[in-house]
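thread: overnight batch results

M.L. [08:02]
morning all. the overnight job finished for the chain we discussed friday. pasting input first so we're all looking at the same thing
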Amino acid sequence: MTGTLPTYSIVIEMENATTIEWDEIRVGLTALANEIASVSASGFARPKVIISHAGYDADAQSLQSHINSQAPRLEEVAELRLAACPGGRYYELKNNGIRATNADVVIFMDSDTVPEPRWLSILLDPFRNPATVCVNGYTYLFYDDFFTRTFALIWFFPMARGDEKFAAKRAINANNVAFRGDWIASHPFPPNNGFKVSCTLLMHQLRREGHEIVHAGARVYHYPPRGWRFFCWRALVTGRDADRKYTELHSPNRAWRVVKSFTRWGTMSWRTIRRVTSLAFETGMPLWQIPFATMVGLAFYTLAFFGHFGLATGLVRDRPEMIPDYVGHT
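M.L. [08:03]
and the structure it wrote out:
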C-alpha cells in the first residue's frame, strides 16, 4: 500500500492480438503507459503489468522485445511480466494473469483496447471504499467507415456517446474491468466452451453474493472487427454463446432452448432496426446508408440465429470456440 491507496496490477491478454496489427497494439500500450505515469504521479505505487499470452516460456524474450520496441515507456513506468499459458483461450489467459499477481486490485484490459485520458484514475478511485469489489468501465467500438459504423450500432457495446442507459445495464466488460484482488483470485472467470460467455457468468456470481457492480466512466475504445470472414464467424459464435448463456442461467432443456433461439432472433432484429434508425446520425452515417446498415445488422443476427438454433437442437456440437486461422488480421 502507498498511504491509503491500493496497489494494483493490470492483466493484458494477447489472444485478440491475432486479429489486429501491431501498429494498433502500440497505440493501446502507449496510452496505457501514459495512464500509469499519471496515477503514479498522484501517489499510486508502481504497478505490475502482466502480458498473458498463449505461447511458451521460450517465447517471452522475443515478445517482450517486441513490446519494448513498440511502447518503450511501458517498462519505464511499470514492472512488465510475461505469463505463458500454452494454447490458452481468452478467459484462460485472464485467469493465468490473475495467478501472477497479489495486488489489492486487478485490472483487466485487452490487447485491442485503447484507454482514454483519466481511464485508470476513474477505474481505481472507487476502490478507496473497502466495500467495492468490482468496477466496470465503459467500452465502445471505434468506427471509421460504413462497415465499422454499422458494427458500432448493432454491437453489444454501447455507443461512444448518448448510450449511457444501455452501458449501465451491460454485463461486465472483461476488457475494461477491475476487481478486488482477493475476490477475483478466489472467483476466476468460470470455464465454458463459449467465446465470450464467462464474463456474464461471473457477473451473475457477483450478484448472487450480493456485490454491487460499480459502473464508472472509465472509457476505452475497442478496435472494430473487419472483414466478411470475421463477420460470418462472429455472428455464428454470438448465437452459440447466447444458447450457452441460456443453458447455464435458465434451462438446459432443448425445447426451451429452441424456443429461445426464435424469440432472441426477433428481439435482436427489432433492436437492430431501432438502434440503427435512431442512432445512425451519432456515427456520422449519411441517411442513404441507413437502410443498408439495417440489412447488414439483420443479416448478422440471422446468422446468429442459425448458430443459436444449431447448438440448441444438437445439430452442432458444443466445442471450445477458437478464433480460426482463416479469420487472420481484420
